[in-house]
Every structure is written in C-alpha cells, then in structure tokens.
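job 3f2a | input accepted
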Amino acid sequence: MRNPEDQRNLIAQAVLHVRSQRATSRRTLADLMRLSPTTAGQYVDHLIAKGYLHENGLEKAPMGRPKRLLTTNAQAGWFAGIEFNAERIQAVSVDFSGSKSGGRIISLPESVTPAGVVAEIKKTISVLAKGAAGPLLGIGVGVPGVVDPHAGIAHEYAFIEGWKDVPLALLLRERQEITVTLDNNLRAIALAERWFGGAGELADYVILGPRSGFGCAIVIGGRVVTGSEHAAGEVGRWPWGDGGEVHDALSSPAVWRRLAGKGRRASLPPDLHTALAALAGLRGEERDAIVQDYARVLSSMHLLLDSHTWFLHGPLTALGDEFCADIVAAASRMAPALRGKSIRLLRSQLGDNAGALGAASLAMEKWAP
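job 3f2a | predicted structure (369 res):
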C-alpha cells in the first residue's frame, strides 16, 4: 500500500507522461510507469473525474482491440513562467496541455531594487491570469545567478543592487496551494528545449548560454545537473586570458564588441540580436579567434561530459549555422580525441522567450494534484 504522498507523485507522473504524448492510452501508461493495468486505470479514472484528462476517440492499433485515446484537458488550469535579468522580465502563460497561451515583456529601470522586481513579477502574473483558462496551478521562475531551488532562495546576482539571498519563492507564493519553483535561468531553458524545442527525444544534452554572461546547463540521463552548491555549469567563471574570466571574452556583449572592433566598455546597441545578425557575414582574424575560443570551451567540456548534442542560446544564434559548424570543426582539430565523434552544436529555435517557457516547464514538472 503506497502512502498518500507517493500516490500523489505517481498521479503527477501520469499527467507528465500523457502531456508529453509518451502515454496515449491506459496500456501505454501502465507500461511506462511499470504499473498493473488495473492500477493505471484507477489513476486515469481519478484524473478524468478531476477534469485533468480526457479519454476520447480511438487510437488504431496494428493488432488487438483499439485503444481509447488519452489527452490532457487544456482548460484544467495554467502555469506562469517568468524569467528576468537586470533589464527586463519575460513572462508566458502555458495551459495544462503545455501550449503557450499568452506572453508579456516588461522593461525594468536601471535602478531597480529586489523589491521592485518582485512587485513587477506579481503584477505581470495578475495580467497573464486575465487571459488564461482555469486556475493558476504553479509558478516557475528562471533566475540569473546562483539559486537554491530546494529552499526557493536566489542567492546572488551582481547586476541588481542588493540582490542577495532573496527568498523569492516565499515572496511570490500568495496562496499555499500554488507551488513556486525556482532554478537558474539556463537550467530552466534546458527544460524548454525538452518541452518546446529540439530535445524532446534526448536524454543527454547541453545548453550553451552566452547571453549577458556565460554559462551552461547540463542534462544527463534526462535529469538537469545542479551540483552540490547549485552552481553546476558556471563555465563563465573559468579563468581566461590575462587575469580575466570566460564571460569577459565570450558573452554575447563581449563577442559583439570584438566583432565590431569596439572597446570593452563600449555601449551596446539596443537590440543585440539584430546587431549581431548584421555581422554574421563578417570574416577575418577576430571572428577566427572567437571561433577558436568557443572551440576550446566546447572541446574541454565535451571531453568531460561526452554529450552528443549542444544547443546554442541567446543573441549569438544570429551569427548563423555556419558559426556553429565552424566551432565544431575547430573543436575536432583542437582535441584529437574528438575526431570522428558526432558532435552537434545547434542554434536553438525557441527565441527570446526560451527562459520564460523553461520556467513554465519547471512549474509543469513540479505540479501535483
């Protein structure tokens, strides 16, 4: 006999399997969860009665009796996904079936405080609620910097003054039944690739995230790696060059300045993605040097992680597929052990709201009835 918490978790897993379309019938759900058909059927009956699942139509099978088709009920509720940095808040609403139903972008003032960020997030969720179906079931937040997901605390982010050990989950939880889930924004993006992008069938992959800083999110065996201090993937902190760090040379702002021939303190264009797209056809020593720098990072990490697929996120996707291919080729030349290995560095197709979609994915994966 399972205890109530175990039952609750199993029912939540059943919803995830149906939402992902891995389970389309009672039989496939039983097989995936290694349950008896009777037990799986009881879970399905419970979820249908609560309005979370539908069972309709017929799924044709090559042999045997046709199966009733299981789907989630998109109107059963919704999840809020929030990602922010020092400049803006990006937010989406996602229905119970995992489809985006709304979105907003809010600019933040230069002098924004932690309290100001929290207030804007709350206001944004209230606006999203007006266009969403059903009750709010969970809030996910992709947070820059170091985060403790278990305690719900955002520890440190250098670009918002006073951002230190902010109990963000507690501050956003206005009703006890709503779970607020935090994680580093790149780890949230790793989930966005699973639910909305190109990693749906992958168990192992890495998110390469040169945005305002530089970091990675690592997925091994279907699980996002966090590390004992929740700082796994902070590659931007590696020593680099003459007393610098990786993010000083390889973040999106740093790459734009290098390609554009600007100084390290030069003002950035208002739309970095568009500015980088204008430089996508540029060739020369500086681009070659950037490719070599990226190849060094990729080859070093690949020899450690042995991941087949990497997804490039952020403004540098504007440099095109050739930029990615050149990095992979340079990495293979740089590390002889990689020659002949099939490494893919793919430009993500998710766009600017990847972090918010990933944050909504956090909320979906943590929800339980």
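job 3f2a | The chain has a mean pLDDT of 90.
job 3f2a | closed
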